[in-house]
Write a structure and sequence with these properties.
There is one protein chain. Helix content is 37%, strand content 16%. It is of the alpha+beta class. The chain has one domain (3-121). Strands 1-4-5 form a three-stranded antiparallel β-sheet, covered by helices on one side. The protein has a three-stranded antiparallel β-sheet with strand order 2-3-6, covered by helices on one side. Strand 2 (10-12) and strand 3 (19-21) form a beta hairpin. Helix 1 runs antiparallel to helix 2 (83-96). The chain is globular and about 40 Å long.
Length: 123
């Protein structure tokens, strides 16, 4: 099974909405150790999950899915793979983090339906 092998260590930025990684972290795709490792470097800036404020009571921007959200931001921003693959990695990573099924599905379908602009903005 895929796995995160490092803690997520971040510090808030002055704007109060974004965070910067203080330490890098890795995600092994497939069995650990894996030939496919996604490396999110120190200094990467994220907003975690881009959830509209209206829904923050149910799905705040950060939570158990925080590492998956950072990984997804990194994949989108750096166009690591196709948008579909980035979104599937997000879903898989949330499962690794034991995010409840209903939350995984809601968040996955949100990025599938509305992530087009964010992904193509980075291209």
């Amino acid at each position: 099974m895929s796995s995160f092998t490092d803690p997520l260590v971040v510090t808030p930025l002055p704007d109060g909405r974004r965070w910067k990684l203080v330490e890098p972290f890795r995600y092994h795709v497939g069995s650990y150790p894996s030939d496919t490792v996604l490396f999110v470097p120190k200094g990467f800036v994220t907003d975690f999950a881009s959830v509209p404020r209206l829904f923050w009571n149910i799905l705040p921007p950060w939570g158990r899915y925080g590492k998956a959200a950072v990984l997804h931001d990194f994949c989108y921003r750096n166009v690591i793979c196709s948008r579909h693959r980035c979104d599937r990695l997000f879903l898989e990573a949330m499962k690794v983090l034991k995010v409840p099924f209903w939350k995984r599905q809601v968040m996955y379908w949100a990025v599938r339906c509305f992530g087009f602009w964010a992904y193509h903005k980075e291209r």
